[in-house]
Amino acid sequence: MSSAISIPGSRPNPHAVSASTSPTVSSIHERMIPRKDSIHFSGIRLPKVLHPIDNEDLRLLLLENISQEAVKALRAQGFHVDHSTKAMSEDELVQKIGSYHAIGIRSKTKITERVLKSASKLLAIGCFCIGTNQVDLLSAAKAGIPVFNSPFSNSRSVAELVLSEIVALSRQYVQRAFEMREGIWNKQSKGCWEVRGKTLGIVGYGHIGSQLSVLAEAFGMRVLFHDVVNLMPLGSARQVESLSALLSESDFVTLHVPELPETMNMISTEQLAQMKKGSYLINNARGKCVDIPALVEALRSGHLAGAALDVYPAEPGSNGAPFDDQLNPWASALRSIPNVILTPHIGGSTEEAQRMIGEEVSSALTRYLNYGATLGAVNFPEVDLRAITLEEPNHVRVCYVHNNIPGVLRQVNEVLSPYNVSKQYTDSKGEIAYLMADIADVSPADVNKLKDQINKTSANILTRLLA
Ligand SMILES: NC(=O)c1ccc[n+]([C@@H]2O[C@H](COP(=O)([O-])OP(=O)(O)OC[C@H]3O[C@@H](n4cnc5c(N)ncnc54)[C@H](O)[C@@H]3O)[C@@H](O)[C@H]2O)c1
């Protein structure tokens, strides 16, 4: 039996030291075992679990079948959690959201300005997915509601899919498997290659590109990458200065860049011509990064030996909907070319990724609701303070969301001036600013007075006190 030291609501720390009851404990473990009469571990000050001072139980609504791990983690924090497998329409949300302090959604539930107007108690929104465009982010920010998501939990899943596509293209086995399903035996080795010793060119060396770099080297590939930022290469990978240099040296080119004006059609006729004859293009990034009619031409002419696409400029809204020329005018031309692997945006769709999304977003919600930290919020300034410890029993944390206008800090600091402000941090993003301050030695009688005074400041959007 062992218990790791962790801050409630934060991710488990892989470097956390365990307190063990085993008779063979190492000296460091022995030093970490708390004495019964002490509230701290030899010099380590334990964080205090904070709660809203008005003491109302926090109610969370989780929709769209969010993972059970997330439900359990949030219930373990003492939140009352209502869980549904379905999305809710705008009308249903308008009726129900008023009694909840936080909501967790995936991509189907839309949080509109109208919904937010009915959300009188709402403190936070968790998007248990990558994107956040199902939420009116600006209206949420103006209502003092941070929105959290999980942009990178599926990086490994995408990297593994790309690696499988490299082998599949190189061996043409998707085509062979398709022929076998049609009852055709077509064994051949012409144009089929091992990937060992081949060069992989990664465009965009972020979360996915860098994971892929490690996996590809384990397969014996030589890895080049191009990124707008200078980055430390992993393993023996090498950063090249220009996209053209990468294109002309690579046997496989794979895109892992965000959708930006500069990355729209970043692979078009000119860039395809710079690629080696017989090379392959893979796009699991965003559909608009590749000029698909130009790609169709490069494949038909035999300049490229194959391509794998997981993302498209226009994608069907639901399973079963057609992927045809009405959606994208080149769809049937693309579908007719051999050795082209087309997948329906499944790069990040694995159970592991879903579980990690659940963990990440539920921790972000917990950190905000219990401690006021907005790290990872997409529509809010990111602010955090080090923990109030158990040795600071009369400390109160002020979480003050306000309009980003001149003179606010003077007003707030006037309210706080009779007290000892032990730490304070403020930041702004657009029209919204957020201040966190820990105040020492606030008597229980003063807490509500303090909250009222801050609430009355002219720029106030939402004030919470945690203790
Ligand atoms: N297929 C899927 O299911 C799936 C899943 C997750 C992510 N994605 C997409 O994958 C892409 C990459 O995701 P990530 O998590 O690795 O992102 P990331 O932000 O971690 O990395 C992107 C990298 O691209 C670099 N970059 C930006 N503009 C560039 C340019 N013009 N040229 C070269 N490099 C440039 C950035 O500096 C950064 O290093 C995103 O478009 C994302 O939407 C797809």
Automatic annotation (TrEMBL):
Native source species: Lentinus brumalis
Official protein name in the record: Phosphoglycerate dehydrogenase
Membrane-spanning parts: none
Xref: Pfam families: 2-Hacid_dh (PF00389), 2-Hacid_dh_C (PF02826)
Domain spans labelled D-isomer specific 2-hydroxyacid dehydrogenase NAD-binding: 165-347
Region (Disordered): 1-27
Gene3D superfamilies in UniProt: 3.30.70.260, NAD(P)-binding Rossmann-like Domain (3.40.50.720)
Keywords carried by this UniProt record: Amino-acid biosynthesis, NAD, Oxidoreductase
Similarity annotation: Belongs to the D-isomer specific 2-hydroxyacid dehydrogenase family.
Domain D-isomer specific 2-hydroxyacid dehydrogenase catalytic span(s) in chain numbering: 61-379
Pathway: Amino-acid biosynthesis
Cited InterPro entries: ACT-like_dom_sf, D-2-hydroxyacid_DH, D-isomer_2_OHA_DH_cat_dom, D-isomer_DH_CS, D-isomer_DH_CS1, D-isomer_DH_NAD-bd, NAD(P)-bd_dom_sf
Record-level GO BP terms: L-serine biosynthetic process
